[in-house]
Specification:
By secondary structure, the chain is an alpha/beta fold. Helices cover 39% and strands 10% of the residues.
Length: 117
């Protein structure tokens, strides 16, 4: 909702687990034919396949290795931040606590990573 409010012209799709995230970025199964992604917002604590594995898998493929990936996590643990950056994350953002903070974060992400048409 915060991303939709911050940038109504930006298309946002969500998946609920790591297997679906991998299928989505590879445009496989129900995600075949989806347009190329401009940015991935990735949670580290995903069911089935965690965010670190998704990130590592993405960065091991030529067609995905330059894709910007912003980690959105409840963790502020320095080990998680360093591990994500070492794996190729473009940025690490701790999930905000309030809706207003989510909106501010969404606007900031859109300003930095998205080109609206």
């Amino acid at each position: 909702m915060a991303l939709a409010e911050a940038a109504p012209s930006v298309t946002v799709d969500c998946v609920t687990d790591g297997d679906a995230a991998l299928a989505y970025v590879h445009r496989q199964g129900p995600f075949a034919g989806r347009p190329e992604l401009d940015l991935v917002l990735l949670d580290l604590r995903l069911p089935t396949v965690d965010g670190f594995k998704v990130l590592n898998e993405m960065k091991s493929h030529d067609h995905l290795k330059n894709m910007p990936v912003v980690i959105l996590s409840t963790s502020s643990c320095d080990t998680d931040v360093q591990r994500a950056k070492a794996a190729g994350a473009s940025a690490f953002v701790v999930k905000p606590a309030t809706y207003d903070e989510w909106c501010d974060m969404a606007r900031s992400l859109v300003e930095k990573w998205c080109v609206e048409v």
